């Protein structure tokens, strides 16, 4: 493809990503779009159903293919601590139900779904309660990373929860300039880190905005973390569907003398599951993050922004 056409397509897709990320944060759209039937149908591509039972059923099926599951109930920026308490109770029951169904009980939670916008101390108490429940169930709790306004607070929460619990990890975003420093700090605490590229709209003074720069930083950070992993300083999970990148990182890990199972990979439900199964068959520890719940609007629009071609899929649902 000629370089000028490639540049034109890249600029259009960057503009589309920005528009979609703006839509993800727009309250009017959040209140109205979820009522549109064709959008509800399109969402089915990224979640097995709105209820937890559908997610659990999908997890049981994944288990037969050697793929683990992480459950996440969609919701963010709650404005009432009563709602956060209900989220905690829900996840406690999820950990028990997953264990009873023979699925490794793992959850992934958002700090703003547990009250961070209202009261950081309450969010910390909620996270500690869930970390207790995860360790009782012999499971694991991941803390998602939201927009950069929350990075410091989220890492602070993680460090405090990690101080008392070992079955807890945090997500870091390769698009942020600060992440190499955060890795340095977290490797002092034997952290578990899920490295992702980053899904929010961020300004250029905080984040790389060109995809190739984000990819290059992802590779550099993963290599840095593999050396820490080799020294027993941290656990790394590659949260990406970029299989080419995973393979480069895995080769580097092998060269360092790491085992396949130490190069862990996590993907999102509905995206590249065949590749995930192939990585599992090669001996990598892999998990699929299964989202469910009715508050899917902002999360779903971020999925569209990751691959603007997905918008065509939504349009097809509208036409037929
Ligand atoms: P990239 O965007 O380069 O995609 C690589 C390939 O994967 C694409 O070419 C395409 O084929 C496929 N692909 C990727 N996204 C797709 C989509 N939406 N639809 C269809 N195909 C797609 N972010 C964040 O900010 N905080 C968080 O806590 C998390 N948590 C998280 C957990 C896990 C397990 C994953 C996999 C991802 C996240 N993310 C996240 C999202 C992450 O930041 C990122 O936006 C997406 O993973 C897309 O980037 P990739 O790394 O897949 O690469």
Account of the protein in words:
By secondary structure, the chain is an alpha/beta fold. It has one domain: TIM Barrel (Alpha-Beta Barrel), CATH 3.20.20.220. It has helices spanning 3-24, 27-32, 37-43, 52-63, 81-100, 120-136, 151-164, 179-186, 211-230, 243-255, 273-281, 297-306, 310-319, and strands at residues 68-73, 106-109, 140-143, 168-173, 192-196, 235-239, 264-268, 286-292. An eight-stranded parallel β-sheet has the order 1-8-7-6-5-4-3-2, with helices on one face. Strand 3 (140-143), helix 7 and strand 4 form a beta-alpha-beta unit. Helix 6 crosses helix 7 (151-164). The protein is globular, with a radius of gyration of 19 Å. Dihydroflavine-adenine dinucleotide binds next to strand 4, strand 7 and helix 12. Dihydroflavine-adenine dinucleotide is lined by residues 144-145, 171, 173, 196-200, 239-242, 266-268, 271-272, 289, 303, 306-307, 310.
Could you state the order of secondary-structure elements as H and E? HHHHEHEHEHEHEHEHEHEHH
Kindly give the count of domains: 1
Average pLDDT? 92
Rg? 19 Å
Unreliable runs: none
How many individual helices? 13
Secondary-structure-derived class: alpha/beta
What's the architecture, going by CATH?
A: Alpha-Beta Barrel
- CATH top level assignment: Alpha Beta
C-alpha termini separation:
32 Å
CATH topology: TIM Barrel
